[in-house]
């Protein structure tokens, strides 16, 4: 799925406390379900702050959520001590994001170091990552 320029995709997991109704109230559309509790979401930019507030409040510690648009990738990490780290992907913070993804997901740093390619490994993001030039896949 490739969202409009004013929309984001998010693969929401680690947040069973976020209800479908809460998402709907802020204009977030569930476009796909992946097993129990994992949802592929389409978020209008007008609902981004409300969505991030939900994630900040209800994401389980030790998980992260990313919001991916044609122009940016936003990461929200909830550390095991319940503190939050929000990062907008850039070359300057790529190493920090890769390290956190590796720690949280148990993937090797070699796998997480190319953030766009790492996200493109999730079929929910693949079309967007290639279409938006975040990544070139061979």
Report what the structure shows.
By secondary structure, the protein is of the alpha+beta class. It has one domain (7-131). It is built from 6 helices and 6 strands; from the N terminus they run E-H-E-E-H-E-E-E-H-H-H-H. A 6-stranded antiparallel sheet has the order 2-3-1-4-5-6, with helices on both faces. A hairpin with a 4-residue loop joins strand 4 (63-68) and strand 5. The longest helix has 12 residues, at 94-105. It is globular and about 40 Å long.
Entry keywords:
six-stranded antiparallel β-sheet, 138 residues, 6 strands, globular, alpha+beta, 6 helices
Mean pLDDT metric: 92
Biggest sheet details: 6 strands, antiparallel
Instruction: Determine the structural class based on helices, strands and strand pairing.
Output: alpha+beta
Q: Uncertain runs with pLDDT below 50, 5 residues or more?
A: none
Helix and strand element order:
EHEEHEEEHHHH
Strand adjacency order, main sheet: 2-3-1-4-5-6
Strand content: 15-25%
Q: How many beta-strand segments?
A: 6
Give the termini distance in whole angstroms: 19 Å
- What's the number of structural domains? 1
What percent of the residues sit in helical stretches (DSSP H or I)? 25-40%
Shape: globular
Rg, rounded, reads: 14 Å
Number of helices: 6
Give the topology:
Elements: E1 7-12, H1 20-25, E2 29-33, E3 39-44, H2 48-58, E4 63-68, E5 73-78, E6 84-88, H3 94-105, H4 109-112, H5 115-120, H6 123-131
Antiparallel strand pairs: 1-3, 1-4, 2-3, 4-5, 5-6
